[in-house]
Automatic annotation (TrEMBL):
Protein known as: Organic solute transporter Ostalpha-domain-containing protein
Coiled-coil intervals, chain numbering: none
Claim: Membrane is one of the keywords in the record: yes
Pfam families: Solute_trans_a
Transmembrane segments: 37-62, 109-132, 168-187, 207-232, 253-276, 296-318
Length: 395
């Protein structure tokens, strides 16, 4: 059975016997008939390399937690977010690698990869917010308008870049992506269970095509919000020597590449029958590969390749260099490794839900503020109208 049929029989496990073996001797004896094992092996090497690099980079950041400095043009809270983002490449590539040879469970396995991806986006944004916090505190209630030129094509004007309005709007536009990603994963699993997911098919009889469209919209919204965010605070990035653009591309770059090339492009090639399945006659273990399973194998190779490149870039943009430098300039205080790990990882989940609730509370306050402003303007208009009427009556 091919996953290109839509709808499909309900349930997660295929009855097509798609369970390729691990006879590594076939890689040497029948290399041209063992491409699935070669692909699995390459993905494993890249995933292992990503873990080694990530753990080393995380250890550098944990050791630099010993330098806790006074409140200045940098914020010690940035490192907790760095530690969390660093785990994104190895966890995501490992979960994708697990799904390589069990394509029938890939929807369920990749749910957890999506959760880590969502948390990485969230921590990228909160890390940049932490870098801006000293500037925000310094500005206090200053109303500073800002105009930014986007891609040399259109202009964005913000009345007050330090105001509640712009901050909360940006929070909403950014947080919608990780929240929707998690919801999308739940929908995918449920649709797969019901047999109406049709992964890898652009048939409008399945949920997959609709989820891809909504994901595209959600990704476009967060990209627009973050590009604007980076442009609005460009002076602060420069003054604080903050590598905001590099940090942005370390997180959003892989997501964009994997979505456009690993998902949309490969699915299009599969739908156009450029990527084809095999009946097992040309495979060393005689296992048939459906076209969509071949596509998924290529997708996993792309993911693992992108993530090993990404973790290399993180050494430059998510390293502890700026924290150590500012610590030496502003005074230090020892922090144990266990305290650093606790602050970086163990308090994460409660902190995430607390910030989510705060965002909701701030949104409610902003809504009430806008309603009150609208009422005040209406009262002023009515008062002005009465004054004009009375003036005309006197004349």
């Amino acid at each position: 059975m091919s996953h290109m049929e839509c709808p499909t029989p309900p349930g997660f496990v295929e009855n097509a016997g798609f369970r390729p073996g691990f006879n590594f001797l076939d890689m040497l004896e029948f290399p041209s008939q063992s491409w699935h094992i070669w692909g699995w092996g390459v993905s494993l090497v890249f995933a292992a390399a990503t873990w080694i690099a990530a753990l080393y980079l995380a250890s550098l950041n944990v050791k630099s937690y010993e330098f806790v400095f006074v409140f200045s043009k940098s914020d010690p809270k940035t490192q907790r977010h760095k530690l969390r983002v660093i785990l994104y490449p190895p966890v995501y590539s490992t979960l994708s690698w697990f799904s390589y040879l069990r394509y029938d469970y890939s929807t369920t396995i990749e749910f957890f990869a999506t959760v880590f991806e969502a948390f990485a986006v969230y921590n990228l944004y909160t890390c940049l917010q932490a870098y801006l916090q000293p500037f925000r505190k310094e500005a206090e209630r200053t109303k500073e308008p800002m105009t930014a030129r986007m891609f040399h094509m259109f202009t964005v004007h913000v009345k007050s870049k330090w105001g509640m309005h712009y901050r909360i709007i940006t929070d909403i536009l950014v947080l919608q992506f990780p929240i929707w990603s998690i919801i999308d994963s739940f929908i995918s699993i449920f649709a797969e269970y019901k047999g109406v997911y049709c992964q890898g098919s652009y048939s409008f009889r399945g949920a997959y095509v609709y989820l891809v469209i909504i994901n595209f919209i959600s990704l476009s919204v967060i990209l627009s919000a973050l590009f604007t965010y980076l442009a609005i605070y460009r002076n602060e990035w420069f003054e604080g020597k903050i590598k905001a653009h590099g940090m942005f591309w370390c997180v959003k770059g892989p997501i964009m590449f994997i979505f456009y090339f690993g998902q949309i492009l490969l699915t299009g090639l599969t739908s156009a029958k450029v990527i084809r399945g095999t009946d097992g006659t040309n495979s060393a273990d005689s296992v048939a590969w459906p076209a969509d399973a071949v596509k998924h194998g290529l997708y996993v190779i792309i993911v693992c390749t992108v993530m090993v490149v990404d973790i290399g870039l993180m050494f430059k943009y998510f390293g502890p260099t700026d924290n150590i430098q500012h610590a030496r300039e502003n005074g230090t205080e020892k922090m144990s490794v266990w305290r650093a790990i606790t602050d970086g990882y163990l308090v994460y989940i409660p902190e995430f839900f607390y910030n989510l609730l705060c965002c909701g509370a701030d949104s409610y306050r902003l809504m009430r503020k806008r309603v009150e402003l609208r009422k005040r303007k209406n009262r002023e208009k009515m008062s002005l109208g009465r004054s004009n009427s009375s003036s005309a009556g006197n004349h």
